[in-house]
Amino acid sequence: MVTKEATWAYRNEHPEFARTYFRRFGEGVVSSVGLGTYLGDPTDAVDERYETTVKRALEHGSNVVDTAINYRNQRSERVVGKALAESHVDRDAVMVATKGGFVGFDAVRPDDPGAYVREEYLDSGIADADQFARGVHCIAPEFIDDQLSRSLSNLGLDTVDCYYVHNPETQLGKRSREAVYDQLEATFTRLEERAAAGDLNHYGVATWQALRVSADHELHLSLSELVDRARAASDAAGTEATHFRAVQLPFNVHMADAFTVAPHDSVDGPQSALRFAHESGLNVFTSASIAQGELAQAGSIPDAVASRLAGDTPAQRAINFARSAPGVTSSLVGASSVEHLDENVAAGTFEPMGANAFDETFE
Predict the structure, then answer these.
(1) Which of 76, 66, 141 is nearest to 104 (CA)?
(2) CB 101 within 8 A of CB 148
(3) What is the pLDDT of residue 182?
(4) Right CATH for 4-360 from 3.40.50.1970, 3.30.540.10, 3.20.20.100, 3.30.930.10
(5) Is the separation of the CB atoms in 286 and 331 below 8 Å?
(6) What's the pLDDT score for residue 363?
(7) pLDDT bucket at 213, cuts 50 / 70 / 90
């Protein structure tokens, strides 16, 4: 489990980064450039490349690794676990996050995914058919409980530092918003129980649209409601305080809705996801920080914005835009090659924009 002492020691071993590169997560610190493991085919060759890049990231100053049970058919989790076991970096210095919600096939996608779901989850009694949306997404407590246990096994860990309920808005295509909130509260209660048992340190939601769309959008979920449901879950589980700590959402120069759209109610009026999270003490981890490589291309960032960003390459400037946003703890960037990994992490040797300069890019 990631600890205060190990992460501060890790920070001190990497003085090459700019002043604000390491940021608070709980009592410890984590790098503001993290490694994502979503992209790539489910093959042995890609496994080998990820193993190399995870080890290199840890050794060169990036101590945030993000994965999910469905990424590359559970292969990403397994390769992260192998890399952690073989790295000389202290496990307690690394913040490991994973997710559950989408079915993770076992190493390869089966010829009949429906039969796999039926045999693995329905016939076994882990979940009911009506709890699945689109045939492959479930956030019911028993399912998430099972997925967390599988993830811990894949990762070879006793404790995961942050466990996300993955894209809960997927359920809105099947059930009402209130029903989704009710299901999340029940699942949060189970995660609070798993936190009390030491299986996870914190939990949250990883989303694509839910937190950055307008309040009247069909896929909107309210952060204030999620926080309230997490508090109720903590009360139900008998934990001293909620372990709901983090949100993950896409944020980059072309997808800035988490800063510009204000759909979340607060005592101060409607707020953006980033502002609400910051004022509520939630950590924010950004996905799609370089838009799956699109922002690594020359000319992809508007000149008026690029001129305000420090970095030697378009990818570095894009990363520095994402981690300049107020309230962002770490910007995740996928990389399965050492060259891209080195370029991405080196973005942290430059200072991000200050708050005033960031605000001015939207004027």
Answers:
(1) 76
(2) no
(3) 98
(4) 3.20.20.100
(5) yes
(6) 73
(7) very high
